[in-house]
UniProtKB/TrEMBL annotation:
Signal peptide range in chain numbering: 1-22
Source superkingdom: Bacteria
One Pfam family hit: Peptidase_S9
Organism: Massilia glaciei
Keyword terms, alphabetized: Signal
Name under which the protein is recorded: Peptidase S9 prolyl oligopeptidase catalytic domain-containing protein
Molecular function per GO: carboxylic ester hydrolase activity
PROSITE patterns: PROKAR_LIPOPROTEIN
Ranges of residues in domain Peptidase S9 prolyl oligopeptidase catalytic: 272-390, 402-505
PANTHER family reported for this sequence: ESTERASE ESTD (PTHR43265:SF1)
Length: 535
C-alpha cells in the first residue's frame, strides 16, 4: 500500500478490494484546523495535539500534499501562546503565535522566508451529538442536505448537498456549530457552515446552512428512530443498528453489505438518504469488527453474505418491516456478497451495488495493484509486470511456503515491488489463507442466478474495480439470468469513491468537492419504481 493519505479509502466505505488490516489508531487528542502562507502560497494543515497522552506524538497533516502524521518538534501550547516546528522538505518550518478566542495566529518561518499562519481549535468529536444531528434537512422543495456520522471517519458528521452535490466532513467547533473546508480533504479556509437549531426541549429541528456566500435555513425532515439490534449467524453474533422511519409501517428495508476490511455500522450520508426514501436501514458491524464476534480475516465471500442474510431473516420477523420488500445495498466488496445473498435466498427482493466488481477477485485485486503502480509514477510496462506477478502470487497462495517464497524472491527486487502487497505476506500470517480462500471467487455463476431487480453502478475511472470488463460480464449475466430488470449505470468522470474526477487517481480525492452526478438521483428514482411504490 502507498503512504498517501487514507481519507479516500475511508470515505468510500472500505473501498479497497484487497484485505485491510484492522489497527487501533492513536488517541484523537485536540484538533486544530488552519493554514500557513509563505511567499504568497497558502497551505492547509491539520494539527493533532496529543501532548496530554504519553508516547503519542503530536503530528501535522498536510492534505493537499497527501501527507499525514508529520511529526512536530518543540511543541508548546499554553493558554496564551503556542509554538512548534516541523520539517517541510529540506527546510524547517517554525511556527510561533498568540492564542485568543479559540484561535492560534502568528508568524511562520520557512528557512529564512517569513509568513503567517492561522489555526482554529475544533471541538471534541462527540458521537452522541452527531447522532442527534444526523438526518435530512430541507432547504427548499427539491433541495435537501443529508448528513450522518461515519465510523470510518472517526464518527465525524459527513454531509452531501443533494442539489449541488457538494460533500465532505463537518468539523465541530461546538456542539451545534460545524464547518467544512474548500474541498473534501482540505478543512480550511471554512467554506461550509452548519449551525443546528434546537427547540425548547433541546431537540434539533433545523439548521442554518452556509455554502460560500449563500446562507439558508433548513428544516429537519424524515424523522426516524435508531434501535440497537443483535443478529446471530451460526457461531457468529453480529451487533448493529436498525434505523426506522417514524411513519406508519410496515416499511421496506435495505441491508448494507459492506466493503473490505473491518467496517462498522455508522455509514454517514447513506443511512440518511435511504431513510428519507421511507426505507428502514440495517447496518451491522462486520464479523470481527466493532462489537461483532467472528473473524473476517478467516472468512470467504459466502460466509460474509451469510451474515448479511441473517440480518434479512431478522428483519423478516418484524411486524414493522415489509418482508416482501427487503433488499441489499453492496459497496465495493459488497458487489460480490450482495448478489450471493439474492442467489441464496428468495427473501432478498432487490440488489443495488455501488462500485462493485463482476470480475474474479484475483483479477480485481491485480487491477488495483497495477493502478497503484501507475499512480506511483511508474511506467505501463511496470504496471503490467506487477499485475502478472500479483496474479502468480494469488494462484500460489495455497501452495507450500517454499514455493510461494521462491516466487516472492524473484519479484521482490523489482522496482515496483513496494506496491505489490502480496509480496509482504508471511508464512504464518492471515494474508495467504485469506487470499487462497477468496482470490478464486468468480461471481459469474452467482450473477446468472439473480432474478430480482438489480441496479449496478460502475465508475469510468475506477482504479479498484475493472469497470469496462465488469460491464461486459454484467451484460453476460443479464442475458444468462433472463433478468429483464437488470440495470447497469456507467458513471462518467469518477473513480471508486464516486467523487467527480477526471482521472480516478487517489490524489484527486483530497481536492475534490462534489459527488458524481447520477448516483443518488438515479438510485432515488429506481427505488421509487422498484421498491417504494411496489406494494
Amino acid at each position: 500500500m502507498t503512504q498517501k493519505i487514507a481519507i479516500a479509502t475511508l470515505w468510500a466505505l472500505g473501498l479497497a478490494c484487497a484485505p485491510a488490516i484492522a489497527q487501533d489508531g492513536p488517541p484523537p487528542g485536540k484538533m486544530w484546523l488552519g493554514e500557513f502562507t509563505v511567499a504568497g502560497k497558502s497551505t492547509g494543515i491539520i494539527v493533532h495535539d496529543r501532548s496530554e497522552y504519553k508516547d503519542a506524538p503530536s503530528v501535522v497533516d498536510v492534505p493537499s500534499m497527501n501527507a499525514r502524521n508529520i511529526p512536530m518538534s518543540n511543541f508548546t501550547l499554553t493558554p496564551a501562546a503556542g509554538k512548534f516546528e516541523l520539517r517541510g522538505g529540506p527546510e524547517l518550518l517554525k511556527f510561533e503565535g498568540v492564542r485568543r478566542d479559540g484561535k492560534l495566529t502568528g508568524k511562520v518561518m520557512q528557512g529564512q522566508t517569513p509568513g503567517e499562519f492561522t489555526l482554529v481549535q475544533a471541538a471534541p468529536n462527540n458521537l452522541a451529538d452527531n447522532f442527534k444531528a444526523a438526518g435530512s434537512y430541507q432547504v427548499a422543495p427539491g433541495h435537501v442536505v443529508d448528513l450522518g456520522p461515519m465510523d470510518e471517519m472517526g464518527g465525524m458528521l459527513i454531509f452531501i448537498d443533494q442539489k449541488t452535490l457538494r460533500e465532505g466532513p463537518l468539523y465541530p467547533l461546538s456542539s451545534t456549530r460545524f464547518v467544512s473546508g474548500p474541498s473534501i480533504g482540505v478543512p480550511y479556509p471554512f467554506a461550509i457552515g452548519a449551525e443546528f437549531i434546537k427547540d425548547a426541549k433541546g431537540a434539533i429541528t433545523g439548521m442554518r446552512w452556509r455554502d460560500g456566500d449563500k446562507r439558508m435555513t433548513a428544516k429537519k425532515i424524515a424523522p426516524h428512530r435508531v434501535e440497537e439490534v443483535t443478529v446471530v449467524n451460526g457461531e457468529v453474533t453480529l451487533k448493529g443498528v436498525l434505523t426506522l422511519p417514524l411513519g406508519k409501517g410496515p416499511h421496506p428495508a435495505v441491508v448494507f453489505a459492506h466493503g473490505s476490511g473491518p467496517v462498522t455500522r455508522n455509514l454517514g450520508i447513506w443511512t440518511s438518504f435511504f431513510v428519507r426514501q421511507g426505507l428502514a436501514v440495517l447496518s451491522l458491524d462486520k464479523r470481527g469488527a466493532g462489537a461483532s464476534t467472528g473473524d473476517w480475516m478467516k472468512s470467504g465471500m459466502d460466509d460474509i453474505a451469510g451474515d448479511w442474510l441473517a440480518g434479512v431473516a431478522m428483519l423478516k420477523q418484524r411486524a414493522d418491516i415489509d418482508a416482501r420488500r427487503i433488499g441489499v445495498h453492496g459497496s465495493s466488496q459488497g458487489g460480490w456478497t450482495a448478489p450471493l445473498m439474492a442467489a441464496r435466498s428468495d427473501d432478498v427482493s432487490f440488489v443495488i451495488v455501488r462500485a462493485g466488481s463482476a470480475v474474479r477477485v484475483a483479477e480485481t485485486m491485480a487491477h488495483e495493484i497495477a493502478w497503484t503502480v501507475r499512480e506511483g509514477g511508474m511506467s505501463e510496462g511496470d504496471a503490467n509486470e506487477a499485475y502478472a506477478a500479483s496474479m502468480q502470487l494469488f494462484e500460489l497462495a495455497p501452495a507450500d511456503w517454499d514455493e510461494f517464497s521462491a516466487a516472492v524472491a524473484v519479484h521482490k527486487v523489482k522496482p515496483w515491488a513496494k506496491f505489490v502487497w502480496p509480496l509482504g505476506q508471511s508464512e504464518k500470517g492471515w494474508g495467504r489463507p485469506w487470499t487462497a480462500k477468496n482470490a478464486p471467487f468468480d461471481p459469474a455463476a452467482t450473477l446468472a442466478k439473480v432474478k430480482v431487480p438489480v441496479l449496478w453502478f460502475l465508475g469510468e475511472f475506477d482504479h479498484n474495480v475493472p469497470s469496462a470488463e465488469s460491464a461486459k460480464r454484467l451484460e453476460e449475466a443479464r442475458i444468462a439470468s433472463g433478468n429483464k430488470n437488470f440495470t447497469v449505470v456507467n458513471l462518467k468522470d469518477t473513480g471508486h469513491s464516486f467523487v467527480q474526477s477526471k482521472t480516478g487517481n487517489a490524489d484527486d480525492f483530497v481536492l475534490a468537492t462534489k459527488m458524481v452526478e447520477g448516483y443518488f438521483s438515479r438510485m432515488e428514482s429506481w427505488l421509487r419504481t422498484n421498491v417504494i411504490n411496489k406494494k
